[in-house]
């Protein structure tokens, strides 16, 4: 080792020193480009978010998507610039990124499905921020807070935050409870079969029509839905605006019993009649001390 170091002349040491200094400068420049690029991307993304928030015509669903695209676009440019400072050619970078993208796409097919589903949700717009939706075969329900390329953030009725993959929403039917301005309330009421059904129907119609949140067109309807065990099931159908739907439902459900009581309709008590039919065959018990199968005696038939 000492002989090897002695054989290196001063020119060799100068070349190594210059190469190391050049690589150090390139490495520092690449690191600086990455740091500055990350800082600029963050600042531009926040500025774009504030700018879009002041635009009243800009949909709140598109804001996070545009901010994410701007953020990662600047970061990718910074990464390519940093690699160029290290002496890596741009054509090589593009080839490496293409091969890496293909490999990552094959390895993360589920993630790619979420990105594709997120793009389709943004294009077709089955819901927007602020809508209450029910999707995923009824297992997902909540108010939409944000839609990103990978997930959709929901707030459930009990206040819990839930992140749902976009592919799960896109592959199932979606119920949007906030898209239409009006909604119909269906409330079932039971009365006894001994009560006057017509009087109960008239009392419930008066109750539904008196509610100020009930729409006059379509008009409220009350009809006999079906007959169960000793009960008649009545159905109240009332249309209202979406914002007043639940308040009207709770109030009508609370007032229905008192309305039926005033109409002299009692609370039904479910009852069933059981008719026990005794079989004509009789099984005789074996006599004391007799061990053997019991005999079945059939009744004689009259001719």
Automatic annotation (TrEMBL):
Cellular component annotations (GO), alphabetically ordered: plasma membrane
Transmembrane region(s): 15-41, 62-82, 88-108
The Mechanosensitive ion channel transmembrane helices 2/3 domain, residue ranges: 76-109
Record region (Disordered): 282-303
Matches recorded under Gene3D superfamilies: 1.10.287.1260, 2.30.30.60, 3.30.70.100
Annotated Mechanosensitive ion channel MscS C-terminal domain residues: 187-261
Membrane-protein topology: Multi-pass membrane protein
Function of the molecule: Mechanosensitive channel that participates in the regulation of osmotic pressure changes within the cell, opening in response to stretch forces in the membrane lipid bilayer, without the need for other proteins. Contributes to normal resistance to hypoosmotic shock. Forms an ion channel of 1.0 nanosiemens conductance with a slight preference for anions.
Subunit structure, interactors included: Homoheptamer.
UniProt protein name: Small-conductance mechanosensitive channel
Organism: Paraburkholderia fynbosensis
Gene for this chain: mscS_2
